[in-house]
Amino acid sequence: MASKSKTTARTAWSFDEFRTFLAFALIGLANTILPSLIHASNYLIIPYPHHIVILIEVAPVLLTKLTLPFIIHRIPCRIRPLLVAAVWVVLKRIADDTPPNVPPPVRIATTVVASTASAVMEVSCLGMIGQAGLPGLAGWGFGTGAGVLENAVWPFVLTYGAGKLLRSATTYVYYAVALLVVSHFVILPQRVSKRGTKSDARAKQREDASAEEGQSFSWHGGIDGSNRDRNRFEMLRNLIRSEMLPLFMASAAISFSQYGLARPLDGTIFDTFAHFYATYSMALKLGVWIGRSLLRLLPARNFKLHLTALCVWTVVAFFNAVFLVSTHLAFFLVFLIGLAAGSVYVNVLARLVGEGRDTVVREVSLGFVTVGDAGGALVGGVVGALLETAMCRSLADGRRWCRRDR
Asked: Any coiled-coil ranges, and where (predicted)?
């Protein structure tokens, strides 16, 4: 009987882990696709150059991640997805009513709010992953990786495959929002979003301790205010050096490869740039998806090899674009870049999940450390877009996409 009871407990826990994995995978998928649907419908690439569009889309994410991890504990976990879902529904309605001939400020505003809403949900989920553990992180890595891969191909499939306008993609906002809400409230185990009940004395003590610790992250002083400031500064400095820097480099390599090395490549083997760019982006994001999905198979604690490989492959990809060595080599190189960068992303977060820190400290660290990811996307994207423009102006070769009529 005892053996049967233990077996049942193990089965129940395994099913609980699967629910956690599935819920975070679906939430990550929806949260990654939603901003791209709004961004694509706004057509900001028409009135503004590429590097300005990247600034508009990514800067709100960076600012949100810099501030929100320290105050989000004030909002109950089960209310956050409802607030975010309401924002997405409003954004969908506004996007439908603002065609490209509407003045850009309105479309810029919806783009900024979309990026902010996605960042809010990411910070919230990473905080809950601190409670859920590695099954939640594995699901988040799998789902967000699948989301970036989907974002690489859906514009081409929608426009060239289905013959529709990019603006019609807003139809799918409702489906993604429904997926996000159902995953959070139906699939995700309640223990992840509810730390305890008021009748549980131990849970109450944990909540009081977490609230006190949360105040120390909210820049409130006290008798030991100077010590808290020193401890907080030391923790943030360690995060920047050991976790944020690898995330910054990984994200910068992805953005640089995506926005800086595509148009200077040889385009003679494809009929249209849209087809070429979808293939190029798919190779890059397929690597990201695989890298983020291999947490259990390829765990990493030291990122020197990953970062060295990222630097080498990015440099080789740059010179391949300059000298037009091979388009197929470019696909392979960006796949490797995505693979290494995806592995760095999920393993950095895994290191924080596995550390024996206080609950709130771990949740704040998981949210704040992704500032490196947003900062890398911003810097790599802007530098890549500017470098791409410079390369297309200075490198005279009719085979390059930027020299061809598309």
From this structure: none
Q: Give the phi and the psi of residue 163 in degrees, each rounded to 5.
A: 70, 30
Q: In this structure, are 166 and 257 located in the same domain? A: no
Q: Is residue 162 helix, strand or coil?
A: coil
Clarify whether residues 178 and 242 are in a common domain: no
- Residue 395: which pLDDT band, with cuts at 50, 70 and 90? confident
Q: Which residues contact 342 (CB under 8 A, 6 or more apart)?
A: 141, 145, 250, 287, 288, 289, 290, 291, 292, 293
Check whether residue 131 and residue 255 sit in a common domain.
no
Structural contact between residues 344 and 303, judged by C-beta atoms closer than 8 angstroms: yes
Distances (CA, A) of 403 to 47, 264, 320, 328, 400: 21, 8, 17, 19, 5
CA atoms within 13 A on the CB side of 206: 15
Domain of residue 285, CATH code: 1.20.1250
Length of the chain: 406
Return the minimum-mean-pLDDT range out of 7-16, 54-63, 234-243, 324-333: 7-16
Give the mean pLDDT of 105-133.
95
pLDDT for the residue numbered 273: 93
Return the residue matching tokens 């514009």.
Answer: 155
Token readout for 348 is: 């950095």
pLDDT at 199: 34
* C-beta atoms surrounding 235 within 10 Å: 16
Domain range for 160:
17-193
Helices 327-354 and 245-260: angle between axes, nearest 10 degrees: 160
Q: How many CA atoms lie within 13 A of 300 on its CB side?
A: 22
Is the pLDDT score of 365 beyond 70? yes
268 vs 265: CA distance, rounded Å: 9
Per residue in 147-194, pLDDT (tens digit) is 999 999 999 999 999 999 999 999 999 999 999 999 999 999 988 877
